[in-house]
Amino acid sequence: xxxxxxxxxxxxxxxxxxxxxxxxxxxxxxxxxxxxxxxxxxxxxxxxxxxxxxxxxxxxxxxxxxxxxxxxxxxxxxxxxxxxxxxxxxxxxxxxxxxxxxxxxxxxxxxxxxxxxxxxxxxxxxxxxxxxxxxxxxxxxxxxxxxxxxxxxxxxxxxxxxxxxxxxxxxxxxxxxxxxxxxxxxxxxxxxxxxxxxxxxxxxxxxxxxxxxxxxxxxxxxxxxxxxxxxxxxxxxxxxxxxxxxxxxxxxxxxxxxxxxxxxxxxxxxxxxxxxxxxxxxxxxxxxxxxxxxxxxxxxxxxxxxxxxxxxxxxxxxxxxxxxxxxxxxxxxxxxxxxxxxxxxxxxxxx
Amino acid sequence: xxxxxxxxxxxxxxxxxxxxxxxxxxxxxxxxxxxxxxxxxxxxxxxxxxxxxxxxxxxxxxxxxxxxxxxxxxxxxxxxxxxxxxxxxxxxxxxxxxxxxxxxxxxxxxxxxxxxxxxxxxxxxxxxxxxxxxxxxxxxxxxxxxxxxxxxxxxxxxxxxxxxxxxxxxxxxxxxxxxxxxxxxxxxxxxxxxxxxxxxxxxxxxxxxxxxxxxxxxxxxxxxxxxxxxxxxxxxxxxxxxxxxxxxxxxxxxxxxxxxxxxxxxxxxxxxxxxxxxxxxxxxxxxxxxxxxxxxxxxxxxxxxxxxxxxxxxxxxxxxxxxxxxxxxxxxxxxxxxxxxxxxxxxxxxxxx
Lengths: 351, 353
What we know:
The complex is a heterodimer of chains A (about 350) and B (about 350). The mean pLDDT of chain A is about 90. By secondary structure, chain A is an alpha/beta fold. In chain A, about 30% of the residues lie in helices and about 25% in strands. Chain A is globular. By secondary structure, chain B is of the alpha/beta class. Chain B starts with a strand and ends in a 26-residue tail after the last helix.
């Protein structure tokens, strides 16, 4: 492991390491990332070992231009529009891959996340290297977001440290959110991770009854259902007392085919419901005093097991939920009182 | 038959020794004040506190029951069985009691009887010798449960109505927090309500349009309460008391309406012969609710039975011991069936029936 500062040798050194199948930690406009040659299977294996993540979780890659991206993935019109409007920038666009890259980079279903960093150092490295490099965050799985090298090194073992070849240390980065991740392979594109780029899709509806609210839950479930089993899916519910958070969860359970009676988990803090096929974990943070209590309740294991989770009073534990925005699809749902007695304004996604 | 009972389902570390229906000791170490200081519970802290206190609480329960004997003697020669709550409750808290109970059962080769916490609340008025006859009605009202049950006999229950969202105690706690009483605030709400005028604010009675009244719900009442509180400015003491009593009244009227319907239906339409009504759970301490239930029972010629002490309404282990005794019908020979501990595990979402 070699820590280097920024000078005229940085880029050649990094490229040399990448060519040898090495791992390079580099700064970006979001967090520190870790790069490996995305076409080299051994380099990807090494990266997976370093990240300590379960096999089958894909890596997004960094390229320099839309043309370069099109070598490795088929971009549909939605994707092309996003490239033109937002890239380079903190946005990862998921498209259907062309299966050229090393095994493990694309998802099992062949989807590939691509990003063009708005950071000259990275684009210079990729340009000189001539091939895409991985653009995953440099922390090991389930560890702190890396804004400085210390964040990384303090949270990994010596074994993991030995796997790193070069670290480009430019000090502490501004605390920007990780990139927004959108999946463009479906009819209507879905935000999988919310970063600084926010899309104003039509995501507010007025509910006029409990049944309405349950139907909104059903629609949201249908929208995100296809991701079940690939990542944890979290419905983070916010709203005042009596707004309809439990009602929403009832609708969600119904949509999942669960027939058990869904009640407020305030007292037990966590309820579990299941049908033959599905399982829903229903949390309530109202009684929780500190957000990290979620961890004492085994929240991390639920994420690792790719569970479907609904959390009432999610704002009370928002910091813990956000820690998992890499491993889980988090749908923030806000339910506000409307003007009329039974009216609720339900918004979701980019809150 | 003497039973050592253990309950760590939520904020209380509890152990008791019971003999048949009698209580020889009933030790409760409450964490409530600790958690209320933080304005909420902390499950990891609850678990740690249970772990720190459990041995002391068990020893104290044993020593109080048999002051002249050593712990070893009591467990070897006096205690016939161990009973432990396996759910429902806070998963990581339940685990502490179960682990300890298993350890003791193994060490002293005692039968280990798993107990359902709601069933124990339901039967808690039976703690202390009595000749109560079944079938009977049973109502459990606590922070975690609100359930009206037909008890055909011990172990044979039919749920007549249960909550579809909040438990009654939970709804009261939430209303209390909205009025600035902190957590848990249901008992402060009750005290404040006593000086309130119920006619100033009108709140809806939940599910007033249900023709078949077979469920409880507090979501609509909470909604109306939030809207009402939001519409007022600079709420003073008098207003607070008026708000408290209005919320409590609507919440209780709802319970009474559902109960009235169900009792009427079973007594008149199904012609069941029922004389007794059992009330259990922490909210059973609310005097206003008790009075209303007493009136309801009078109307239907039922006798209302409540736990004989406050120490039996809230979470406690004496009710666990008595419940275990009732479940095995007091039969010693049945105890042999409880020597396999491997299947005993926590079930945070355990159901009554």
